[in-house]
Design a protein that fits this description.
- The protein is α+β, with helices and mostly antiparallel strands.
- The protein has 13 helices and 19 strands.
Length: 469
């Protein structure tokens, strides 16, 4: 009899690490949107030097939450405080397990009284749905799942389209579209603007450092709105950004998108695993990288390790509060950027052209991740593991290979460490892994965000966690 839920999948698999490290799902796909409209180098360049149009319509779950208990559901499942939250505001939502480990994250939009939408990856959406169904909350949930990774020519529809206009010229384009001045609200505040004769909801954002907007509306209007934005942006150098460049933006701005959901063990989480389907993100996802442990718990992360420490507020009860209160937060690993050594990167690429030499793991450009969740060992000069590198790629703006990592707290910025690139034993059985040898790549511990533009202008950014969360 085939498994119907995650708990049964795990029972059949034995070790969850072995199951996830050999998953056949492949890399995380950013679906439907064309890989490139110009070329990924020009598209990266534009978000720092002119403007880009990001199309976020397809790769995230939209979870619509309505009802009298909607805010209580959110508060009970988030490390964040709800103080100061209100209609026409957004908040980065970070849920943890009863053991204090991160499940995922996403953005919550407070659209109207008793009306919210969560936008993000599946793990946090699943956690919200589970508690909505089992926790006695008076709420209604509508899930608009992300578009299929491989639609195979079939039509794709969503409830909403979702775009961002970003870059140093973004606000000039926004005001041209609106037909006049538009107030630059505080970060993560919402309003409306005019585009092509339509009222469009807006969120003040800044993924590339400069003031910009996230905008959304009914899916049937997307082509009309997209054409208007690109026409208005011509004189300001706007570039539509494809799905190849889009996810690499976070290397410069500093958000780690895909930690492993920490739900595979623990008796308190058994009902959740029995609720999750055998085809869920959690059951089918994959772990990639050089960090290998027999204990799945070694892949779990606390909010402090991912840079979410300032979000944790003990002014309300939430799942994981007791566990987090007992932690010594100052001893937790901390989020950094690692700037990879150019000479060592040259060795990786040179191996593609040396049939008789060492063959290193392929480093794809601009994003080198090859699993749902990525964990590469970070070691010091003595070979001691001091952290994990979790999101890896290349910035054409910085002319550097970069990764986002969490490392031991005493290691200062400027320290040279090494990232072990490639999997042990010639590689796992994942479809994204070819036979290869490991190589240690020198990498300098650097700030988050790495981009000077983002670092100097992201004063209220959710990725630096300086805003009230």
């Amino acid at each position: 009899m085939s498994a119907s839920n995650l708990e049964q999948v795990l029972s059949a698999a034995g070790n969850p690490v072995e199951m996830l490290r050999n998953s056949q799902i492949g890399a995380y796909v950013y679906p439907v949107v064309a890989p490139e409209f110009h070329n990924w180098r020009s598209e990266q360049w534009a978000w720092q030097h002119s403007a880009v149009l990001f199309d976020q319509s397809h790769h995230m779950v939209d979870l619509f939450i309505t009802g009298p208990d909607a805010l209580r559901l959110i508060s009970d499942t988030a490390v964040n405080s709800m103080k100061g939250f209100g209609v026409n505001k957004a908040k980065q939502y970070v849920p943890t397990t009863p053991y204090g480990h991160v499940i995922g994250d996403g953005i919550l939009f407070w659209l109207a009284e008793e009306e919210f939408v969560y936008v993000g990856r599946a793990p946090a959406a699943n956690w919200l749905m589970f508690h909505a169904e089992t926790g006695g909350y008076n709420v209604q949930i509508v899930k608009d799942d992300r578009s299929p990774s491989r639609p195979m020519g079939k039509p794709v529809r969503r409830i909403n389209w979702r775009f961002q206009i970003q870059g140093p010229n973004a606000w000039a384009i926004i005001e041209k579209l609106h037909g006049g001045p538009l107030e630059q609200l505080k970060f993560f505040n919402m309003s409306e603007m005019n585009i092509a004769g339509r009222k469009v909801r807006t969120l003040r954002h800044g993924m590339s450092g400069a003031p910009g907007l996230e905008i959304w509306g009914p899916y049937d209007e997307q082509e009309e709105i997209r054409a208007a934005i690109l026409e208005a942006g011509k004189e300001f150098g706007i570039v539509p950004c494809g799905s190849r460049a889009y996810p690499s933006n976070t290397l410069e701005s500093g958000w780690i998108p895909s930690p492993l959901p920490a739900i595979y063990t623990g008796e308190k989480l058994k009902p959740y695993r029995e609720w999750l389907g055998a085809d869920s993100y959690e059951a089918t996802g994959g772990i990639g990288g050089s960090f290998v442990s027999d204990r799945i718990e070694d892949y779990y992360l606390t909010p402090y390790e991912l840079g979410y420490g300032p979000f944790v507020k003990f002014d309300h009860d939430f799942h994981g509060r007791e566990a987090l209160e007992s932690l010594d937060k100052d001893s937790q690993r901390r989020k950094v950027t690692l700037a990879w050594n150019g000479e060592d990167m040259t060795k990786i690429f040179a191996s593609l052209f040396d049939p008789d030499g060492a063959q290193y793991k392929f480093f794809d450009l601009p994003l080198a991740n090859y699993a749902s969740s990525n964990y590469d060992r970070v070691v010091d000069a003595g070979g001691r593991t001091v952290g994990v590198s979790m999101f890896t790629g290349y910035s054409y703006n910085e002319k550097t290979a970069l990764s986002l990592a969490t490392i031991d707290p005493e290691i200062p910025v400027g320290t040279e460490l090494r990232v072990v690139w490639g999997e042990p034993g010639g590689g796992s059985r994942k479809t994204t892994v070819e036979p290869h040898q490991q190589i240690e790549v020198r990498a300098v511990v650097s700030p988050v965000p790495y981009s000077r533009v983002a670092r100097e202008t992201y004063h209220q950014g959710w990725r630096t966690a300086k805003a009230e969360a």
